[in-house]
Amino acid sequence: MTTPKIDLHPKPGDRVAKTTCYMCACRCGIDVHLKKDAEGTERVAYIEGNRDHPVNRGVLCAKGSAGIMQHLSPARLRAPLKRTGPRGSGQFEEIGWDEALQMVTDRLGPLRKTAPEKLAFFTGRDQSQSFTSFWAQAYGTPNYAAHGGFCSVNMAAAGIYTMGGAFWEFGQPDWERTELFMIFGVAEDHDSNPIKMGLGRLKARGVKVIGVNPVRTGYNAVADEWVGITPGTDGLFILSLIHCLLRAGKIDLDYLARFTNAPVLVNEDPKSPEHGLLLTDDNGRALVMDRATGKPASFDAKGVHPDLAGKLRRAGLTHRSVFQHIAERYLDHAYAPEVVGPSCGIAPERIEAIAAELAHAAFDKSFELDRAWTDFRGETHRSMRARPVSFHAMRGISAHSNGFQTARALHLLQILLGSVEAPGGFRFKPPYPKPATAHPKPHCGVTPGQPLDGPHLGFVQGPDDLCLKEDGSPARIDKAFTWENPMSAHGMMHMVISNAHAGDPYPIDTLFLYMANMAWNSSMSTGRVMELLTDTDENGDYVIPNIIYSDAYSSEMVAYADLVLPDTTYLERHDCISLLDRPICEADAVADAIRWPVVAPDRDVRGFQSVLVDLGARLGLPGFVNDDGSAKFQDYADYMVNHERRPGVGPLAGWRVGEKGLTHGRGTPNAGQIDAYIANGGFWMEHVPENAQYFKPWNMAYQEWAVDIGLFDKATPYLFSLWSEPLRRFQLAAEGHGHRQPPDHLRARIKTTLDPLPIWYPPLEDGHADPVEYPIHALTQRPAAMYHSWGSQNAWLRQIHGHNPMYLPTELWEKHGFQAGDWARVTSQHGEITVPVAHQAALNRNTIWTWNAIGKRRGAWALDDDAPEAKNGFLLNHLIHELLPPKGDGLRWSNSDPVTGQAAWFDLRVKVEKVPAPKQSYPDTGRQGSPVGRGPHRVAQQVKP
Fold this sequence. Notes:
By secondary structure, the protein is an alpha/beta fold. Among the domains are: 267 residues, Dimethylsulfoxide Reductase, domain 2, CATH 3.40.228; 152 residues, Beta Barrel (Barwin-like endoglucanases). Helices cover 24% and strands 16% of the residues. Helix 16 links the parallel strand 23 and strand 24. The protein is globular and about 80 Å long. It starts with 14 loop residues before the first strand and ends in a 30-residue tail after the last strand.
């Protein structure tokens, strides 16, 4: 008998194309296996991780593997669409690209010549924001932003203003050296593969992981200790940890003196117009008291040893160090665990124990890395001192109206421990770190027919940088960078539709959106937003006159567009994951990547970025046309190669042309650049020199390397800003100083919330919603298997999350007598929903939650009307409003962080009651027509040679 030969490793395809995943924001490397069918056409047969890629090293999650189903989705748009029925109906006719682009040009061309601000151009999580912002700036409208205002701008802005970078795309833990890892508010949708890989390495070494989150899922479920905190109290908990560490003397005094503004002198005279500002010399350099001389000196003077206890009397004014203010504030008994614990839902002794664990890891487990390095003062250090405790945080602490100050508090905590950029701690990824002052300020200067006077988004340093017109009214439709939300670094996308409908601060003509599902899960008060998009005036005309939308799929938002420009899937187009935008760097390496068309579209669709290139040429936008008016770029791929943001620096850093041939970083464009990326697996990477890998903000080896490679034009060492002068400048204005003053009704709020040291205050909805009537916190978080709406039509991912229940904690479950299969009515001050419920024991006792982006509107995404997502799935968004409830003062306050304007999704308070099971979840938003029909009941593909 002959033993049959079985191929245990069959090849899934005929060849492999290496590119970058698009199924979430990780940007992992993938191997796309392609196989020819009987007609000789290559088809996508299988997707797996690229083992050589620096981000995921071959690891790929369920979303990434399911990318094949995203590419084959029946919900894919097939051609440009022109609306034929009412908005929201989903009734369209297919048209050609020439007609579609002419319609856009005919609309936007005259508008640019007369009132470019009447174009509002906003994009979702498109991963090409340096390009889309460049286009909007060339057009001349001030109204551009991406999705960050309702995602995690609190996290980003707090990190930039405090230490020059933040979690997620800005940095990562030192996985190989940390001895304690603590996460706050982290779900499974962001940075998933790198975190999973890192957690695996920590578990293998026996390193403890502490998860702080009201909900125990995902990473918090595998944490060694779970802290089920009360939503919105993370900042109070963190400040109590700081209280404990200060009281025990477990802080890194040398680190604080050398690398932060803790020793910098602060003006303490309440009568001075510079009260609370930092003392500087004639060159604007911050002054410290030098321990060696006892005299004031510039913080960066050679040989200076800053004194944390410094004090100076000059010109009749007293100045004391920032550190003394820190000690006085956080040693106050108000932050003691026994005071804080009940509000946070954490036992006081547990707060003490966690503080002790942080101190033990940072100091008792400290070690020295045998690497000499020279700091910005010219002092050479023989080794690198480790503080092996690290943190990570995400939307859970960011999406609150106190999220900016909470994120700052977390950065203060890790800086007090001396762990940022130290071995074992949190490490920046190139091109970070860079201080807030190295970023542009926001611009809003409009001249008809001309580009905007500078970049739209940036980091204000005080009231003079606000985007206000001469009469003090907002210059932007979203009211970003105004007294209401002065430091809104990512804009306020969640306010665009309501402001445009109200004509406040002015009416717009065209709303141009890309990959932003504003009619569904990317807006607060979803049903109301749908009404605003369809509302008409007394003449029967739409209040928002024109809506242009681009997406790859038949989403809910498609139904509300007048013109739809169909995008490709991520396997059919060029993309650039650029150092100018959000690169794929690691702490030890600088890197960028591309996507490229591994297969050709089988529909009449075009990559949105290439469409913008075309429109830029048709409209004659600077940067998109040559001197003779001809198109400067053929498409987005041409732009990726030949555009230069400044001399020698373009979207892609790899394989440029230098004086002696190919080079990396700085160099002139190379016609073969994309081919070089493809040959190298879709990415470029260069390691940071070993002696430059730590202490990057102060390490001159890193600073000089960053200049050489083109990250900076000059070395920019700086101090971490524990005391934030920009915040204090706004407080001074609210106190009556300066020529630019806030409205009177905002003075008290600015003085309270824009404190130069991190503070905690209750979420703003707590002061508007009756805590007796609405005693329960309600949260929504992204599932690991789906990212935004993109997985809704994915045949594989739908099997993991076909619908979503509302999860209730044990006490609430038993109080209302719920059983499996029951339904509940959940009510807020803004609305109510009727939804299925489920029991979860590992949940904060006063919190309910659900997955976001699972529930769908009937007719969208090519789903059947009886699909579980449309029948039982639901959105918590119906209960949330972009404005807080009236409070009797005649004003409707924005439901946002008062500093950055981030949407306060997680401040929601509700009540719950048991109801008889209905036939479907409510509210019922009706059915929209589908321009792509319905998907098959059975999804199958077999590629046969």
